[in-house]
Amino acid sequence: MIVCIEGCSHGELDAIYGSIKKTEIRNNIKVDLLLMCGDFQAVRNLSDLSCINIKEKFLSMNDFHKYYSGECKAPILTIFIGGNHESMSHLCELYYGGWVAPNIYYLGHSGCVNFGGLRIAGVSGIFKGYNYRKGYYETLPYNSDNLRSVYHTRELEILKLTQLTGKLDVFLSHDWPRGIIEHGDQQRLFDVKKFLAGDKDSLGSPILTNLLRKLKPNFWFSAHMHAKFPAIFPHSATEVTRFLALDKVKPGRDFLQFLNFGEATGPKVLTYDPEWLAIVASSKNILDGYTSSQKMLLPISLDRPTDEEIEEIKERARFLYTTREGDDESTKTLGLLQIPHNFVQSVRPYEKPQRPVPLKPTPATLHKNPQKEDFLNLLQRLVPERLFQNYLGYWEKEKDTPLKEEAFEIETVNDNDEVMDDETTEPAQQEQQQQEPQTQTPPSVTSTNPDEIDLGDE
């Protein structure tokens, strides 16, 4: 099973899928899954364009609206997380995850799914200490501050992810875990990105470092810094996480990596992770109060779902599934854990004018997306009711109250969330789009170790 990893996409879907297609033809392979590490830019129309943190001179509709409208369809099942240049009016409709277009799935503000036997988790956004313990207080239309704060990662997402147990094959994040550069060729990185050298001690997210140590995934993929960087993070003498950050979409840049995970050990169908469903259910009451609070909150506590509760979810998924003609045994076994293909257009897509006119973003309002209600209804059917009450609450932060096992001081940490602004590329010209962007494909597409990547190709 071949999985393609992509760094910062910046809305250049045509170039990404086109480059993958050329690599497939050249190497006689077929990519089963595409994972994208943020700055996806799911801009459906001019209202969405007003909800993305990009300098005005770089505003462009790019390619996504064609996939949303049905003019184009993604040729590969695509899963992505959010970064710091996203149309948050769209992604906030799908807080729990969902289809932004046919065959393109948003993993949610945090999430965990399964495909072909791979367990894939991830978190959207980037870290900002002063917003980490705030609720999701932003409302449309965004002001200049909320346009940025809305994509900052919140503690609730990290808390949910820390509840995951068992094997985790892949983790996706936009920014890097802090300290990861110590486990790779950082001098090579600084030769390419000289401005990072002065920030090497504070480069990346401390909350992701904690998560890396807790989850210990086999692979961790990131983007954000517009640089290719592999590293091996050791957990023990026999256990490591292979880290790889990739570049942005641009001719001659290393923005793709192809990995062969061997024979699929499960159906090549996108499915909900049963443990994740239990975790989401047990945190739902927290979210209901969390959305309207700007107050700093103490670390929230959850009781981890038991193995028996997770098995009950699997059994309900099988029992409540209505068998259809042609279903094989694996489909019947997965049952309602199969993620439904229930994409709908919740807003009218962009219509390209007949003659070139300046883009004029319009104010946005939040639209209800039926996929969110479908997901919550599924939770009610599959998850035991007692898990929805599994809730210890949240509290306002009291002065001088010590934080729980914190490895950083959230009031002072600053990872330069706009470090990429000055590097944002002008939309590609027509002739540039016809060039084949550079990709890295290991010999016979069998390498699963980012340490084998030749940094000399940077």
In short:
The chain is of the alpha/beta class. The protein is built from 14 helices and 13 strands.
Descriptive account of the structure:
The protein is globular. The chain has helices at residues 13-27, 46-49, 64-69, 88-91, 146-149, 155-162, 186-192, 206-215, 274-290, 307-319, 329-334, 370-382, 385-388, 430-433; strands at residues 2-6, 33-36, 78-80, 98-101, 104-106, 110-115, 118-123, 170-172, 219-222, 229-234, 240-245, 256-260, 271-272. It has 458 residues and is an alpha/beta fold. Strand 1 (2-6), helix 1 (13-27) and strand 2 form a beta-alpha-beta unit. The strands form 2 sheets. Strands 10-11-9-8-7-6-13 form a 7-stranded mixed beta sheet. A 6-stranded mixed beta sheet has the order 4-5-3-2-1-12.
- Mean pLDDT across the residues is 84
Radius of gyration: 21 Å
Class by SSE composition: alpha/beta
Order of helices and strands: EHEHHEHEEEEHHEHHEEEEEHHHHHH
Question: Which percent range describes the beta-strand content?
Answer: 5-15%
Instruction: Please state how the strands of the largest beta sheet are arranged side by side.
Output: 10-11-9-8-7-6-13
What level of helicity do the residues show? 25-40%
Low-pLDDT segments:
392-458
Number of strands: 13
> What general form does the structure show?
globular
Let me know the largest β-sheet. Answer: 7 strands, mixed
DSSP summary: helix tally: 14
What is the subunit arrangement here? single chain
Distance between the termini: 26 Å
